Amino acid sequence: MQTSSAPLKLRLRSYIVIPARLESTRLPRKLLLSETGKALIQHTYESASLASSPVGICVAADHETIAQEVRKFGGNVVLTDPNAQSGTDRVAEVARSLHDCDVVVNVQGDEPEISAEAIERVVELLQENPDVSMSTLATPIRSRQQLEDPACVKVVFSEAGRAMYFSRSPIPHPRTWDDSLLTGSRPFFFQHLGIYAYRRDFLLGLADLPQSDCEKIESLEQLRVLSAGHQIMVGVIDEPTVGVDTAEDYRAFVSRIRNC
Question: CB of 231 within 8 A of CB of 165?
Fold first, then answer.
């Protein structure tokens, strides 16, 4: 009997880190809001924990108040430098101690409805593309208001799924507008979803990359990666995760939870 001589492809070992900052600009101390009976950070932690492939999960907190809340519901937490410049830096700080981990998944603390499928997908993208150091997700945009909202970050990517550019502006920009661009069966516009998977070694060096002019103008950190010549794989999912940025977002989340 013949046996295959193809080498076995080892599964990547992944770990979830949830960066959590106590003070937020638009909705103060939002990760501690608990009208549902659970703090927002607990909802995010429990949703992310449903992913089966990661070997572990923790919160990277910038303040003891967040850490106490995570310990209260039995979660894992690491206190990180309160002066860290970004959530990515906070995630990288935790990743330095994850010596047996191949991939680190960055799940935002204000994503209480993050799906296990989304987390599994960003890890799969790196498993399937060994030459790429970073992956993320996008979902179709079907509303012109959303398309034109600068708070909704857009992404365009190649046929192979590799990111070409991220922007707060509508991209691609139609020379002539037609409503069918939004309503047709084929989507043309995609919202970038704030979940990332990084190969650990790449993440540890990410802070050393210089800021690009595009990053400074758009205030989008992922543009630093593209400007430095690295590639980002983009996976498309049908249902966006719903982040909580404003009081209105939180009220809508509470309403969905109560109606379940």
Answer: no
CA 51 to chain centre: 14
Q: Which parts of the chain fold into alpha helices (H)?
A: 40-48, 64-72, 87-95, 116-128, 144-148, 180-183, 200-206, 213-218, 222-227, 247-259
Residue 40 in domain: yes
176-185 long-range contacts, CB within 8 A, separation 24+ = 179/144, 182/141, 182/142, 182/143, 182/144, 182/147, 183/142
pTM: 0.92
Q: How far apart are CA 20 and CA 66, in angstroms?
A: 7
- Residue 7 has a pLDDT of 53
CATH number at 97 reads 3.90.550.10
Q: Which stretches in the chain have pLDDT values below 70?
A: 1-9
Residues counted in the chain:
260
